[in-house]
Amino acid sequence: MPSSSPAPRRRPLPPAATNTGVAALLSRLRDAAGQASPRRLLLESLALVLTSGLSSHPALSSRLLNSLLPHFPSTRLPALLRLLHRDHLTLLLLSSGRNRQAISLPAASALHALAVSSGHLPTDLRLANSLLSLYLSLGAPDSARRLVSDIPRPNAVTWNTHLRAFLRSGLLPSARRLFDQMPERDLVSYNSMLSGYAAAGDMAGARQLFDEMSEWDVVTWNSMLAGYVRSRDMEDAKRMFHAMPERDVMPWNSMLDGYALAGDVMMARAVFDGMPMRSVVSWNVILALYTRLKDWRECLKVFDAMMAVGVAMPNEKTFVSVLTACGSLGDLEKGKWVHGLVRKRWNRLVPDVLLLTALLTLYAKCGVMETAREIFDSMGERSVPSWNSMIIGYGLHGQSEKALELFLEMEKTGPKPNETSFICVLSSCAHGGMVLEGWLCFDRMVRIYGIEPKAEHFGCMMDLLGRAGLLNDSENLIRNLQGKAPPALWGTMISASWTQSNSRLGEFVGKKLIEMKPGEVGPYVLLKCLRC
User: Prior bond to 70 cis, omega within 30?
Assistant: First the structure.
């Protein structure tokens, strides 16, 4: 049990301070003790509270403590607590969830000791439950167990707090043992345990518990439905959905998300069209599905319908899907209109790297590299796709040297390039006829980064050599392609061989195509033309 310490003696309120003066002072101090107040003002207010004998006012002390915590080292919290009145409100607010990031385990133990020494524990169940939750959130199960053992009559909240802590830590067997030992179990207990089974993917255990329950609420039904969806069991999910006595937007979204994750666009659209109401999540799921399936036009049609309905306002995820569709279609006009919507809602959005990358990718694909670069330079955080979009944008629009410069900058100051980064820079070098630079990048990819070349990398190198008229010297590179390249790439190479009158290379590639697709006429025709 944490040790207690004697309460400090407090200075009486000065006689000159009248009731009116005290009320005015309290009012000013409450205004100064807000969480937005600067640290210096908070410390000055604390000093005034202590020297004026006002520390016995619980509401003021609690407000001041809660505001000071973000500015106060947790190691000094026990000393601060000893200066203030140990009332129920102060101790309860300190142990509540809002302040847990500012409290360490030693500070929690000191808080426990003060609660005991002031007589609030072990009888104050509300405070005990809050402190129990604090111990468990700090990963101190032994301290939590000691606290529970000291509580004369733990209530359902006490047991449920302990149960949820086990489940949050992924300790399903321990949670089940505790659940079985609980002297009383309410609906919250059953829902917590059922959600634990569902989160662990044990839908047989969840179903068994569901069947044992004497009553169910919306949390019960939604937990079961979400568990089946997460397990990709859409048949049982559908049965659970239809058995629900009432459905709000959440179960509809669960079914929609399940079919979308399975890539079942017909069922997902059927659920979406049948929804009595739709949240922004509903629209985002169907938009993301069409984006993932590269059905760009349908994505934009759904977005237009969303804007026409006007009930759910687009957020960051909405704009990412729509901007991706605009960029993939090269629809700059529509993309600019969507960008305008982003600007209008900027203060209500949480702009992240995905949204900004989608924006710059739109402009990069459409060749508006100045705007793309402005967005890129404004980003506080850049992901690998952010760099890749800029590199390929420069390469595809006749600025291969800038693409290479940006790639070299990425190597120096950005994230580690991945295999897509090298496809982007190799393609840029091919478009610009930068043979030596392309070979150096290819060499660095293999030797420095340990990336095994794939068909796409070889395709870029063949394009690079073909544009430079060097296919005659590339037989070793071509032989490395065997077993890796798709037929489309071999077709590209035989066309390049024909253009450059390289019959030897063309015959080699043509024979590869015949081996891969002996039933197609095209390779035979190309070989005949090469031999004429």
Answer: no
| Helices 353-365/316-329 angle, 10° precision | 20
- Check if the beta carbon of residue 407 is closer than 8 Å to that of residue 417: yes
Per residue in 194-246, pLDDT tens? 999 999 999 999 999 999 999 999 999 999 999 999 999 999 999 999 999 99
Question: Cα separation of 449 and 420, whole Å?
Answer: 13
In whole angstroms, what is the distance from residue 356 CA to residue 118 CA?
54
Q: 362-407, pLDDT tens digit by residue?
A: 999 999 999 999 999 999 999 999 999 999 999 999 999 999 999 9
Q: Kindly state the DSSP code that residue 53 receives in the 8-state scheme.
A: T
Strand ranges (E), 223-327: none
Which candidate, 428, 452, 449, 450, places its Cα nearest to that of 438?
Answer: 428
Say what the alpha-carbon torsion angle 147, 152, 157, 163 is, to the nearest 10 degrees.
50
Q: Which residue has the tokens 């915590």?
A: 69
Total residue length of the chain: 532
Query: Which residues touch 6 (CB under 8 Å, ≥6 apart)?
Result: 117
**What distance in Å separates the CA atoms of residue 523 and residue 510, rounded to the nearest whole number?**
6
- Peptide bond preceding 122 in cis form (omega within 30 of 0): yes
CA 434 distance to own-chain centroid: 39
User: Is there a contact between 67 and 35 (Cβ–Cβ < 8 Å)?
Assistant: yes
Query: Hey, what are 51's tokens?
Result: 């020297």
Model pTM above 0.70 = yes
Backbone angles phi, psi at 13, to 5 degrees: -65, 135
Exposed, middle or buried by CB within 10 Å (0-12, 13-18, 19+), for 61?
Answer: buried
Of 417, 356, 406, 412, nearest to 382 (Cα)?
356
Determine if residue 196 is left, alpha or beta; phi over 0 gives left, psi from -120 to 50 gives alpha, anything else beta: alpha
Q: What percentage of the chain's residues is helix, strand, coil (to nearest 5)?
A: 75, 0, 25
Residue 284 Cα distances to 241, 257, 300, angstroms: 21, 10, 12
C-alpha atoms less than 13 angstroms from C-alpha of 5 in its C-beta half-sphere: 13
How many DSSP H helices and E strands does the chain contain? 31, 0
C-alpha 66/C-alpha 93 separation (Å) is 7
